[in-house]
Amino acid sequence: MSDLHPSTARVRDIFDDWARRGRAEGMETGHGPSARAGIEHLDLGEGSHYLDIGCGNGYTLRWVSAGVGADGRAVGIDVAPAMVERARALSSAFENVEVLLTAFPAHPFEAGTFDGIFSMEVLYYLPDLPGALAEIRQLLKPGGRFACVVDYYAENPESHDWPEQLGCDMALLSEAEWGAAFEAAGLEVVAQERVRYPLAEGAEPGWKQTIGSLLTVGQRPS
Ligand SMILES: C[S@@+](CC[C@H](N)C(=O)[O-])C[C@H]1O[C@@H](n2cnc3c(N)ncnc32)[C@H](O)[C@@H]1O
Questions:
Q1: Tens digit of pLDDT for each residue in 195-219?
Q2: CA-proximal residue: ligand 1, atom 10 (nearest)
Q3: pTM (2 decimals)?
């Protein structure tokens, strides 16, 4: 992975460090409810080919593995070597799961490879979002779907200082702008919703309960 965009190199270093410090599993727990909601929209079945862009520790690959079966495939890609190492270690017993180190939109796949693509809390880090969405459309089979979840978006003011906290660039889009970006890339928006998390017993409601994660689902026209 030579010639990484400087902001992607910064993001790689941040999440490499998170993986080394055991924070990938915290993301798995913290993102679980909205990731499940997103994957439900993909309508995966026996034989489906599934891709998770920025897969972290690879938890969604293991979720979908049994459903896509021996004729299917669950592939994760991530730019952080320690995340890839973690995802491979946790997925070693899953024969149809594969994890690759690459900085999307760089990838080794042929056009029209995937029935369903998912990405959770990743796309706003990409320096060229329109280009990345166009590449996702290319990777989908006709009729295939892309489910994208973001917590950093205009309607969630509590997220607005995350770029400063993390020390990296992030693209702040509104709900309508996410929808428009999908459409501009040739992905028809078939669903857009806020996923609100259940309140843990005794806890005060926060933005996850009141504002929620933004899920946008796009479909490559048949
Ligand atoms: C906030 S974490 C989310 C991880 C995972 N999706 C989850 O829900 O736990 C963002 C992940 O995206 C990866 N990432 C960021 N930019 C990427 C890129 N251009 N290509 C591939 N992975 C990327 C990071 O390394 C990191 O693992």
A1: 999 888 888 999 999 999 999 999 9
A2: 122
A3: 0.98
